């Protein structure tokens, strides 16, 4: 590995390039299922899954939580100079990217370099690190899946960013979005994400919801128009989340976002980036959110993680439930894959996972879970009765009077007359248990 990738020191000592060794391997620092060159349905695993490493959780999350301070103390976070500290962190990041062997990464602006309160200085800092990242991308072959701006951590955004009641706060949000778009474009980013971390309300008593949503839509249009004017050809993603930190966020779930995009004429440029833990916080399964997006033709990308079943908040753990992920991969495969995006590991190692190798174990496990689920889902689609059972369940709409109804040729009176003439319908099984067993059989 060249010095361009890891700077002047090696941060993850004793760990080499992670390779594929197959299901029989006992090596915890090897892939057992993620064989990037394995071809499934005409595409390699690498092309299907498009894995990305999240810059924020992997190189910034220090283990702190609402009840305690940091437990993870990074060797790349020690230099007092803000630019050198950011470069050290980028050296560590690209060393990890190269060793873990996943093709993409994602970032927020403030993940890359610390921001202050001076707009021009922040832009200068980010531009400096963008030039540094260009060198590292060229040397490593890494690509940027998407960029975004952090419009929720700074205290100025306590009442929202684009939805803030104070116009001056909105202008700061716009400045950050512009700089993050410029950085994404400069680095060849394939997409750009909007996550409304505080775009919502704590109480309707002091909130003009209509105005806030209108202002959010205006900012999205302005950002989209600016990026297109700068030559950006990628896709814009909205990432739904129902609550936390606000009581209610305007991008509550996939259906809510679809309604918002339709209302404000944003359907042509925006798709959805869906997160597993956000789906469960909204009271849905991740499969449900995927299906809603897929049915609308807006399944853009996913943030892969999981929550804790006994804990009702956003724990961002690495995915490891093969049954659930296999069901998700069925939907993704049937939808034809992602529209521009991929699988970003928006997950963090636990507060007590303090060894450098733990970050590798986490990503290896997540990648293997999705790779194995891809194999399982492909086998189910190719070799089982899964699709035939579902098709048969709705076959009464494919011919005869059912097809006439679908084609809009029957009115309410006609439907009534059919019901009266045909009598009580035959009881037909939904075969739920059979299908659940089928998933387990292919696992």
Automatic annotation (TrEMBL):
Classification via SUPFAM superfamilies: Xylose isomerase-like
InterPro entries, per database record: Xyl_isomerase-like_sf (IPR036237), Xylose_isom_bac (IPR013452), Xylose_isomerase (IPR001998)
Binding positions (Mg(2+) 2): 275, 278, 314, 316
CC cofactor: Mg(2+)
Highest taxon above the source species: Bacteria
Cofactor info, note text: Binds 2 magnesium ions per subunit.
Record key words, sorted: Carbohydrate metabolism, Cytoplasm, Isomerase, Magnesium, Metal-binding, Xylose metabolism
Active site: 108, 111
Protein's UniProt keywords contain Isomerase: yes
Reaction it catalyzes: alpha-D-xylose = alpha-D-xylulofuranose
Subcellular localization, as worded in the UniProt entry: Cytoplasm
MF GO annotations: xylose isomerase activity
The EC number(s) this enzyme carries: 5.3.1.5
Keyword Electron transport: no
Residue positions binding Mg(2+) 1: 239, 275, 303, 346
First-listed, main subcellular location of the protein, grouped into a coarse class: cytoplasm
PANTHER family per the UniProt record, alphabetical: PTHR48408, XYLOSE ISOMERASE
Family, similarity comment: Belongs to the xylose isomerase family.
Quaternary data: Homotetramer.
Protein name stated in the entry: Xylose isomerase
Designated gene of the protein: xylA
């Amino acid at each position: 590995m060249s010095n361009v990738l890891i700077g002047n020191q090696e941060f993850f000592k004793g760990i080499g390039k992670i390779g594929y060794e197959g299901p029989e391997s006992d090596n915890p620092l090897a892939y057992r299922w993620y064989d990037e060159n394995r071809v499934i349905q005409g595409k390699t695993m690498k092309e299907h899954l498009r894995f990305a490493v999240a810059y924020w959780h992997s190189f910034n999350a220090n283990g702190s939580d609402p009840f305690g301070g940091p437990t993870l103390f990074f060797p790349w976070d020690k230099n007092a100079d803000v630019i050198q500290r950011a470069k050290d962190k980028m050296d560590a990041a690209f060393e990890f990217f190269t060793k873990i062997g996943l093709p993409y990464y994602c970032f927020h602006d403030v993940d890359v370099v610390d921001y202050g309160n001076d707009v021009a200085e922040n832009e200068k800092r980010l531009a400096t690190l963008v030039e540094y990242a260009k060198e590292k991308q060229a040397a490593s072959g890494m690509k940027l899946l998407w960029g975004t701006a952090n419009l929720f951590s700074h205290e100025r955004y306590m009442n929202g960013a684009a939805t803030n009641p104070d116009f001056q706060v909105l202008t700061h949000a716009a400045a950050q979005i512009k700089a993050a778009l410029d950085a994404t474009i400069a680095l060849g980013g394939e997409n750009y994400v909007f996550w409304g971390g505080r775009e919502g309300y704590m109480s309707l008593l002091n909130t003009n919801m209509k105005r806030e949503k209108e202002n959010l839509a205006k900012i999205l249009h302005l950002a989209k128009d600016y990026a297109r004017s700068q030559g950006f050809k990628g896709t814009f993603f909205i990432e739904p989340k129902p609550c936390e930190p606000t009581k209610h966020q305007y991008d509550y779930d996939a259906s809510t976002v679809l309604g918002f995009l339709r209302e404000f004429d944003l359907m042509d440029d925006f798709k959805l980036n869906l997160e597993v833990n956000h789906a469960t916080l909204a009271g849905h399964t991740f499969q449900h959110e995927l299906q809603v997006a897929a049915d609308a033709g807006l399944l853009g990308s996913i943030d892969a993680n999981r929550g804790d079943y006994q804990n009702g908040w956003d724990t961002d753990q690495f995915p490891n439930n093969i049954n659930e992920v296999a069901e998700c991969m069925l939907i993704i495969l049937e939808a034809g894959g992602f529209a521009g995006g991929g699988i970003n590991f928006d997950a963090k190692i636990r507060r007590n996972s303090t060894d450098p190798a733990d970050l590798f174990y986490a990503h290896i496990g997540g990648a293997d879970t999705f790779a194995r689920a891809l194999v399982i889902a492909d086998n189910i689609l190719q070799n089982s009765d899964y699709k035939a059972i579902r098709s048969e369940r709705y076959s009464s709409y494919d011919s005869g009077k059912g097809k006439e109804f679908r084609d809009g040729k029957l009115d309410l009176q006609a439907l009534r007359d059919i019901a009266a003439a045909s009598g009580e319908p035959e009881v037909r099984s939904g075969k739920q248990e059979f299908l659940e067993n089928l998933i387990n059989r292919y696992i």
